[in-house]
Specification:
Elements: H1 19-28, H2 41-44, H3 53-67, E1 69-74, E2 80-83, H4 87-100, H5 111-136, H6 143-152, H7 159-176, H8 184-195, E3 216-217, E4 223-225, H9 233-245, H10 259-273, H11 280-294, H12 305-311, H13 313-324, H14 331-367, H15 377-388, E5 393-394, H16 396-403, H17 407-419, E6 424-428, E7 431-435, H18 440-444
Helix pairs in contact: 1-3, 4-14, 5-6, 5-7, 5-12, 7-8, 7-11, 8-11, 9-10, 10-11, 12-14, 13-14, 14-15, 16-17
Domain Fido: 182-339
Active site: 274
InterPro entries: ArsR-like_HTH (IPR011991), Fido (IPR003812), Fido-like_dom_sf (IPR036597), Fido_containing (IPR040198), WH-like_DNA-bd_sf (IPR036388), WH_DNA-bd_sf (IPR036390)
Length: 445
């Protein structure tokens, strides 16, 4: 299904319902279909008898309207956004909250993974998110080249690499700001970091668009989303900040909104408002990440949602359109994002298993070596990388960044490996370089 095939759903108005006609359909149908799917009109109309399609849709909407939660955010016509946690979504939400509230140890299989987490997992996975978020926006640099750039902290050589580096800085900044309340200035700061020294769509870093000539296109070049008027951006984003900063814990008898649902709504609204000429997606995903960390869901430090969104850009786009074309029903976007988050948790578990296996290979390699007891975790991991890529060059700056240590500590780790003749030392000007020898395996025996 292409974006341009999404048809606006027939509008539901409770005051105009003919219950005599609709009652049999209300009895026969629920908010979701018999498989638990929360279908949009564009999906439902082909699955039911054509003559009854609209009545069935209105019956479905009746059930949804009875259970929907309205939030204090509205479109330009002052129609509020709402959402409904359908029964099929409750299990997903429970699983997300259960897993996200724990640590990496919750989904890791053994203590080695915990050690990996403490040493370099944050930096490594933040790099993954920075890369895939940029690729989702069109950056074409390969993952290997991009990761090497981030590890070595070298200057980007083109705009695609710049976008990736900016994303890495953006995620670190969002993490540092995780204790702060949301302000319009913070959103501008997020955008400024995301688009620094880029020129796509004539973007001005840290500034709102100054016209309405920007829109989201469908597959045939048609307009599928026209953002609200640029003159109202500041006012509308201030309302979004107010929503973000409002206590929705329900502790004072007020409205309860689960933090993950709220974070997803914030993500959606930046895409919907489209306040910038470019970089809206990156800013939106950073805002999601910021809010989850603010609410102490620490596992999100290790989760890349962009990787999964990149794998399903069509589903991502449709989840936006379904919401807009069905009276601001955010449920479609929320349901899609819950699936993405659960898939991201699965990916994280696979990543941990892979890293654990790699580390075990190093341990096995070193077990019968005279160096086994004299090397620490970082040094063993450097050996693992050098063994995997003979001739690889390490720098103190790269090791400091990868393992979250000072450059002096990194230099100490590398110098010891040189002293043990497991790395070679050379210079590039004033910078010391540490090279993995081609016969590293032999040197370990």
């Amino acid at each position: 299904m292409s974006k341009n095939s999404v048809e606006k759903a027939p509008e539901f108005d409770l005051d105009k319902i003919d219950f005599n006609t609709l009652s049999p359909f209300i009895i026969a149908h629920k908010a979701t279909d018999d498989k638990g799917r929360y279908l949009h009109w564009d999906q439902l109309k082909w699955r039911v008898p054509r003559a009854d399609a609209e009545n069935i849709w209105l019956a479905v909407k009746f059930h949804r309207s009875m259970q929907a939660k309205e939030i204090n955010i509205s479109d330009e016509k002052n129609a509020h956004f709402s959402y409904f946690i359908a029964p099929s979504m409750e299990a997903k939400l429970h699983q997300v909250i259960k897993i996200a509230g724990g640590s990496v140890g919750t989904i890791a299989d053994n203590p080695v993974s915990k050690n990996i987490q403490q040493k370099f997992l944050v930096s490594s996975l933040m790099m993954e998110e920075a890369i895939t978020s940029a690729q989702l926006e069109g950056a074409s640099t390969t993952r290997e080249v991009a990761k090497k750039m981030l590890e070595e902290e070298r200057e980007p050589i083109n705009e695609d690499e710049r976008m990736i580096l900016n994303n890495f800085f953006l995620l670190r900044h969002a993490e540092r700001k995780s204790k702060n309340e949301l302000t319009v200035d913070m959103i501008l700061d997020f955008h400024k970091i995301a688009t620094n020294l880029t020129t796509e769509n004539n973007v001005v870093p840290g500034e709102f668009r100054q016209d309405d000539d920007i829109y989201v296109e469908g597959t045939q070049g048609e307009i599928v989303h026209q953002p609200p008027c640029y003159k109202h951006i500041h006012t509308r984003l201030q309302k979004l900040c107010d929503f973000a900063n409002t206590d929705h814990s329900g502790s004072d008898g007020g409205q309860f909104i689960a933090p993950v649902i709220k974070a997803i709504i914030l993500h959606f609204m930046i895409g919907y408002e489209h306040p910038f000429r470019d970089g809206n997606g990156r800013t939106a995903r950073a805002l999601f990440y910021w809010f989850m960390l603010k609410n102490e869901y620490e596992l999100f430090r290790y989760v890349s949602i962009s990787k999964l969104l990149k794998n399903d850009p069509k589903g991502y786009g449709l989840s936006y359109l379904y919401t807009e074309k069905d009276q601001n029903d955010l449920t479609y976007f929320i349901d899609f994002q819950l699936d993405i988050i659960l898939s991201a948790f699965d990916e994280l578990q696979q990543y941990l298993q892979h890293k654990t296996e790699e580390f075990h290979q190093v341990l096995q390699l070193l077990e019968n070596s005279k160096y086994n007891n004299s090397l620490n975790f970082v040094q063993k991991d450097i050996i693992k990388k050098g063994n995997k890529e003979p001739g690889r060059i390490f720098t103190a700056k790269e090791i400091a960044s990868s393992y979250g240590v000072s450059e002096n500590t990194a230099r100490t780790h590398l110098t010891k490996l040189v002293d043990l003749k497991l790395l070679l030392e050379t210079k590039d000007g004033r910078t010391k370089l540490y090279v993995a020898p081609s016969d590293l395996m032999k040197r370990l025996k």
